[in-house]
Every structure is written in C-alpha cells, then in structure tokens.
Amino acid sequence: MVTTSQGSETTVVPTIEERIADLPQDVAERARMLQEMKDKLDTDVNLIRRELDRVLKVSIEQNIKPDEKLLADIQGRYELSSDFGINRNDFDIVLEEMRNNQPMLDQVRLAERAFGAEWTVISISESEILFADTIKNTNVEAQEEFLLGLDDQERSDAVVSLQERFPEIERYLQRADDDRGLHYYDYLLVCEITGAEPMSENQYRELQKHKPVDRQKVCWLLTEKEMLDRGDALYGDRLGGGVRVYGGSAVFRNGIRAGRPLLRVQRS
Asked: pTM for this structure?
C-alpha cells in the first residue's frame, strides 16, 4: 500500500502488485481486467508524455537566447519550406549565415515582433532570403501593439518616407481610441519600419495552397496605386472555407484585419 496525506485526510492507495493480486482467478475475467488496467496506464503514460513535452518546451523557451529561438523556430518550419521547393542543404547554409550575422538576425526579429509573424523561408537566391509570414491567422493584436508602442521619431521618419507616394497618409493614420485592427495604410507603416512588404494576391493564393491560413482573420494584400487612388485596397481571407480576395475601403479598420507580409533579407 502507498499512503498519501493531504491536510488532515489520509488516503491509502493500493500498489499495482496488490491490485493484480486481488483480481479474479477466472482466466477470462482476469485477462479482461488486466487489459483494462493496461489501457488505462497507456492513456496515463501518454498524458504524462504530452505534459512533459509541454513543460520541457516552456523551459527551453524561457532559457533559450532570443536569436537561437528565432533560428530554432525557422528550422522547425522546414517541412513547409520544402513544400516551396527549398533544398535542405541551401536551407542549412542560410541558417548558418544568419547565426553569424547579427544585423540579419536583428532585422528578422524586429519584423517578427512587429507582425507577430511566424517566418518561413520560401525562396533562396544568391543575394537574398525571402521569408513569408505563415502564422495560422494574421496577428492583428501584435501589429496593433507595435503601432501603439512606436516612439514619435520612429513614426515620423516612416510617415515622411511614405508621404512621397501617399501625400495624405498622415490624415489616414489618425486613430480614434476605440479603433481596432489595421487599415491598409497602418499596415504600410509597419512594413516601412521593418523593411517588410505586402504579399501580392498571387503570393497569397500560393501560400494558401501549401498551408490554409486566415480562417478567422482578414489580410491586406499588395494594391496598385490606381486602385488606392479610388480609395480601395485588396484583402483576402479563407473565412468561408475557400480563398477569397476582395476590394474595399483602404481606410477601414476592424478587429480582425491586419497584414501578412513578406520579408527580404540580403545575404552577406
């Protein structure tokens, strides 16, 4: 017997050996009950394994350096990268390049934080690595938080740069206290600061072939100036099951709308 105490209560728990000794002697009944015990133990062991995996993962994430975590996360998405035709040897080479190049790591980590992104390598050339944000649903909350946390100078510099293409952008970026989500120009502001760029409609549809995304959120897509001049922008989702791309007001915000960018990183 095993005795356990909790407060003033004491519980006596029989050991496995004692439970087996108490089983009926009838062979068929004994076999049935032993199988039930084994099934219950198998279930318990699986639960323990899953919880142990979770705890170990949390422990690693709490102790791992940010750069190593970033690289481990990218490496963990290699299967998706391979769907885009990325060779394993090329993949390992560019990860090693990143590990030894702090500016590259800083660029990717800044964009990861700004967009709440899950970066997946989708293309490698001699001069650059192309990442796509492949998170399950466009991370509206992370992008809102990034925008609200910008310091005045950082925001001002990005706005001045964007004004060359969009003279009215300062007016578009005005935000009421109860506004939620990002409109197209909010998204462009985050892209300008991080060096990211909006996905085109074709790139968005290609991603959806490899990994269905945005079943609960809406993603702004690269929009030509002619369409923007009419006040509209492209956005896509998979809310109804299939991939859909629409045009609508470029300055419309709601709590499920933000961006899912690409990020080009120059190789050393």
From this structure: 0.76
Q: Which of 16-20, 126-130, 164-168 has the lowest mean pLDDT?
A: 16-20
pLDDT at 56 over 90: no
CA pair distance 230, 234, nearest whole angstrom: 12
Instruction: With a cut of 60, say whether residue 3 has pLDDT above it.
Output: no
The sign of the CA dihedral 266, 81, 95, 132 is: positive
Kindly state the percentage of the chain with pLDDT values over 70: 93
Averaged pLDDT for residues 170-191: 95
CB 236 within 8 A of CB 201: yes
- Rounded to whole angstroms, how far apart are CA atoms 268 and 249? 40
172 CB-contact burial (10 Å; exposed 0-12 / middle 13-18 / buried 19+): middle
What's the CA gap between 153 and 150, in Å, rounded?
A: 8
Is it the case that residue 182 has pLDDT exceeding 90? yes
Q: Under a CB-based contact definition with an 8 Å cutoff, are residues 190 and 196 in contact?
A: yes
> What pLDDT was estimated at residue 17?
86
Q: What are the distances in angstroms from CA 84 to CA 48, 90, 115, 133, 250?
A: 36, 13, 22, 13, 31
Distance CA 105, CA 92 (A): 15
The whole-angstrom separation of Cα 36 and Cα 21 is 15
